[in-house]
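Hi R.,

Here's the chain you asked about this morning:
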Amino acid sequence: MASKSTDAFDEEERVQEEEEPKREPTYGTVEWIYYWSDTEGLLPTPLNVSITGAIKYSCPSLRWYNFDVYPHKIKMTNTGYTVLIGAKWKTERPYLEGGVLLERHVLSQIHFHWGPNLMDGSEHSVDNRKHPAEMHVSFFKSEYLTQEEALKHDDGVVMFCYIIKMAVDPDPRLTWVIDAFPKIREPQSRTRIGPLPMSKLMPMFAEDYFLYWGNLPSAKGDNFIIRWLVPRVTLFATSEQIKEFRKLWDPWDEPNPGNCRPLQEQKDRKIFLINPHFNLYNSLLPLPTKPEPSISVLSDEYTSKPWMLPSIEASLQAVLEKALRGDEPEEEQNKLFVIN
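And here is the predicted structure, written out as tokens:
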């Protein structure tokens, strides 16, 4: 009898916990951003983002780790629907901490969206203007171990959405990828590229980005809750480079004119603008006039075990060991973690 009474009490307590409304965290905390996943996480995407109407919000700086470390290999695949890039490291992978993330998020994969012309290709619009293409980079919460598992959790995945603008000159960060497109024209074809560090492809930033909650629909009909992050920094490409996307074949062996989804209405959904401090007249920042230095640093795992670095970085190991002993001048130590 005592056992049955205890079970009934536990069940009643569980039901009460489920019925108890979720308390709203304090405004100004990262937890307050997470709170809105319950009501906005399954709303449709993509959206228009703009400084106008966005909620300006302060968060810690976003920190990038190991994005200067060379991967063991990088594979690029034409899935028939998109270009998918995956990389493998023999040791620790690149990851993010801080910013709007409560825990460490690990780099997962990269894919692209484009359209039938230069005026329609990006998934998101900015200030009600679409751009030729968009690069998506997914990160998942490290404790879930895989992106597949992370997608089952509201706090599991964040998608970085880099707008690709039209430009006269090619972007070196994209050129080494697009130059390999002729090798993957056919659907399900793949090739190796690089390998180069992810800092050679992804613009890095500590602040100045848009964030909102929304759904990620799958081909199987599932809808996952994820965070969508649109940086104000961008990539760029020439018209000839954008044409290379449309030369890729779809699953029916026809040129793929595009794979961008239609825009959705924001309605009452919150779009955050995190730590804005640059030019606030335009929602996207101007194209860089020169390559910007990397802001990525090595993780404690690499700094304590420099022998784990790939062989291509072996020349840095002796300098790193000196820096760890304090023998290297401070100026040289600061240079050590910047690979231009």
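One quick note: The mean pLDDT is 89.

Cheers,
M.
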